[in-house]
Amino acid sequence: MTIFYKFLTREEDIDLTRKASEIIEHYGRPHQYAKLCEEASEFIAAFTRYSMNPEHTGLKLDMLEELADMALVLQQIVDEMPAGAGRMFAMAAVRKADRQMRRIEMEDAMSDRDERWSMQALAVVCLLILIVLDFLIAAAMIAWEW
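Request: output the structure for the sequence above.
Response:
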């Protein structure tokens, strides 16, 4: 199952999983680690352009394309993780989500403001993605002794 499963048919998701596996098998993990960094930086650049002009449809499409590139490479790396590293990665995500939920509870207790996604919230998401990517690459390199 891919990160895209909610938006694909079962057959499309199975096909994407197969293709992702073939891609990383062809290029190898070290190449795809570097590719993930490249795709993340391209996403950040596209997101920055979009955030300055969110009504521009072309910029939104560019940002979504770059997000898809980054997510596809991340999917390849996660699918190839050994169980121990995968568990560490998953538990780090759980801890980070729990911490953010505590922050939200504190914000709600301190403020009556509307809760809606803003460009600032999306910027925080981008930063969290980079933190997770950094951890993922470090954990993979340690686990696989790279």
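DSSP finds five helices and no strands in the chain.
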